[in-house]
Task: structure prediction
Amino acid sequence: MGEFAALSASGVWAVASLIFSRLGRVLTALALNWLKCVIALLMLGVTLYVLEGRVWPELGSKELALLAVSGVVGLTIGDTAFFHALNRLGARRTLLFAALSPPMTALMAVPVLGEPIGVSLVVGMSLTLGGVVWVIRERHPDGADTIKMRDAAGRLTKTVKWGILFAVAAAFCQALGNVLTKWGGGEITALEISVVRLVFGVIGLTLILGATRQLWVAMGAMKIKKTAGLVFIATFLGTFLGIWLMNAGLRYTHVGIASTLSSTSPIFVLPLAYWFDGERLTARSVGGAVVAVVGVAVLFLW
Result:
């Protein structure tokens, strides 16, 4: 059950990323992230009340502070950077960069959580980074790729460079958020952790949107039925259901196995990007995705 849940989480994240990538054409990254977090918070809050009869867990001040910072780092900053990367790189490449998060998490866990470092960490990181770089440096001389990666001189475009920066920042924030979540989670359930993190993530996003006067723009976008429908579907799959399945994977199987299986989104997104976005599948793109995921597997299962 745990393995199936973790693998399913990876699949729904891949589908949701493609939908969010399309929504990025009509919504800013901040607005899209705010809508996603607000809707997911409502869904998870109702679920927590139905299952456990409460909407807020009992927390100490230290645990609350750690989860609050985790929510702001992972959701306010990290997810916004992720959506910026989706808009510039597309779902396939952005999810490949997301494979950097597990090795980053492992590195951070050494000083913060006291987890050991070994040969598997070095080998896993090398394979993961190699797979990502291999795909990013791919050329499409026939112009079949929907994302223009290089200019006439063969250099990466400014848009792609910013996309890579945002994708790496998103992976870093996700890793830091993971470590802070584990540190501050204490004895509360995964569902309760998700609600606490989302509350502070929404607060951070609301403050930023209010300061930049984008809050009403974000709310106004939901008046368009097609946009609202896609936002609800992507949020249900990627945030609500994805978190639920991932937590089930962590509970019913080993953490290393669950982490590895949940990092296989690049494999799922390759055929999806081909069918829905017209991105061409090449031996290099498939090989790079496989190498990146193998790197994650080596990191956790050596």
Q: What stands out?
A: The CA atoms of residues 63 and 184 lie 4 Å apart.
